[in-house]
Amino acid sequence: IQGVNIKHKSDKKEEDGDVWTVALHAPQLGAYQLYVTFQKDLATQGAGEIGYGGIKIIDADRETGYVAVTARADIQLANTVREEGLIPIDEKEIPAQYKSGISVPILMAYRYLAHPFDLAVKTMHHPYASVLVALIEDCRMTTTMTEEGHVVTDIDLRLKNTREQYLRLFLPLQAELWRTMVN
User: Fold this and answer.
1) pTM of structure
2) Rg of the chain taking only CA atoms, in angstroms
3) Distance CA 59, CA 42 (A)
């Protein structure tokens, strides 16, 4: 919760949600802008529906605002189920100061002129895909048979490691590692 002239904020848990009290240093006449941001966690698997009824300002004469819907990369917003009391707008119509702190693309944008309003969106959760950890870009193998009957294989490879601290190698049965050199 951000705004000009805020002295302190406190919350109280109730059955239908949290009630926040925002105290100002001095009474405010006319329009007052309060910036509230929060997130709601979804179920971790499968499809579902998420609803949003907004935040209600208690004892306000008039209230207008914007709703911006974003999603994590593993959440797909399938389609809108309900848009009651909301006007769909282009996300560029939301003032820049209201979008501060949003680092992912805005998928849906709305303007509301009064309470109550209701928004419900169907969601689909997708599991994260595994990413490539290491990639061998170039490999040269030379195998030599010694006079004693041993097979010696030299492997010179150039690999790109994206996140692991250690490289694990699996050698054939009864093989010995004689030396390793890095760079």
Assistant:
1) 0.60
2) 29
3) 31
